[in-house]
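Hello forum,

I keep getting stuck at the same step: I have a sequence, I want structure tokens, and every attempt I make locally crashes halfway through. Rather than fight my setup again tonight, could one of you with a working pipeline run this one for me? It's a single chain of 560 residues.
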Amino acid sequence: MIKKICKVVLTIFGFILSHTVCAQTTTLANPILTGFYPDPSIVKVGPDYYLVTSTFSYFPGIPVFHSQDLKNWKQIGNVIDRPTQMDFMGERLTRGLFAPAISFYKGTYYLTCTDIDHDGNFVVTAQNPAGPWSDPVKIPSVRGIDPSIYFDEETAKAYILYNSDAPDRKPLYSGHRTIRMYEFDYQNLKVVGEEKQLVNGGVDLSKKPVWIEAPHIMKRNGWYYLYAAEGGTSVNHSEVVLRSKEVWGPYVPFEGNPILTQRELPTDRKDAITSAGHAQFVDGPDGKMYCIFLAVRPYEGDYYNTGRETFIAPVTWKNDWPMIEHGEKAISYRYPVSYKEVKLKGALPQSGNFAYTLTFDKELDPTLLFMRTLDKSWYSLSKKQGLTLKLKPETVMELGNPAFIGKRQQHLFSIAETELVFSPKSEKEKAGLIILQDEDHFYWLCQSRSLGKDVLQLYQSKPRSKEMELLTEVPLAAKTGKLGLRISSEGDAYSFHFSTDAKTWVLLKDKMDAKFLSTKVAGSFIGCLYGLYATSSGEPSANTASFQYLKYAGNDPVFK
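Reply #2:
Ran it on my machine without issues. Output:
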């Protein structure tokens, strides 16, 4: 009898244990992509997820990330990775590529995007999301921004929808826009038939809604859902939804709109997430629906330097209407989910606190960015010297292609560090570590010459002048050798250190105003980059500067 009881107990225990193991849980940590990764778009193909974001005038353009669990992401390529596809020369860093959208149909990946100042709206295709992607095909009939393609599986037709002008190009108020759509010939990559207006102004024209944009269509339970951002991509940002039984409408707005916003919450709340919107739905590994969207993490008010980041949240459904979980309540930094985590080999961490060192012995990491185009003639890689930059006359204050390679600032509290080998020959020759928001807003820690001697200098840009202000300068020994450079961020302040012995770090200047580099002060759409940068300041030079590594560490209190 005792043996039978023990056997039953063991059976029950084994059943409970097996089900406990099967019901694995993980936690989605927000942001899923920290730092300057705005305007996300996502597509699910089998068990795989592919996500893209905006890059504006940085090159390569439009990173492609892969995941199998919506938590761990690995960058596998870039959509615009060849200068023959396009470049952004002459464009400010906050222009260029706006809001890509990725989709998949019958073995082909499609990506639409807007080159805001040059090529307008275009589409590229690929058989593999890692690339190569085709040369862009312009879609001149699509007048506006934020195009996305919807494939209707039932009718085997495709449609392209986008933000466009007010009716008859006569806006009733500033920010009055429309959502319009064409049928799309996905085989020949061109529009078909006549354009039709789907949404005028937003969900309620009488309330003068602004900037209805980033539209997507999905189909569920016989309904076509058109959802889009509304309110502008700042503190009034939101996501709204409408639905129809026909793809061409009429679309009726949800009475519970917006389905996502943070604009009603107290601005002084702790660890605030703000400006949420620009969303896209996707089915998770557990069969439940999730939503990716952009939002920001300010250190005060509307001040942030990390740019617009990519977040995720669950979606709930009621009466065939979607609601991003918590609606107008605070977005969470953590969402538990009931499925297994899948880590990807070789992936750099993208969420939470992390640290890593990039070396330059073989190839540049795909996360690194150039300004406007790629020119391999001015840099080289080696195990001994690391990254060697030829000094170019161009500077970051101009609209060309300076000798600059940057990595996103991904945390409010962060450290970037490098080791420089450089022998400047004149006061015009400078090389070092920069923290940059745009052409007019940066701090630069660099080695140069002054009065015939090597010096370490700290500069601050002077907006709209193409000039810099020298904040401080210290002499360096005649044979410095390797010079350590470090910039650290602490929310609303930056500090600058240096080392001449690879051991002891000396404070050069601290508590420099970080708001000066904020998106708000710059009036831009981008986030800060730590950059390795060398210039001969307008004069020709045959000199070079070598950077042994780029070390990065982020340590935000909210992630601890």
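DSSP finds two helices and 39 strands in the chain. If your local run keeps crashing, start a new thread with the error log.
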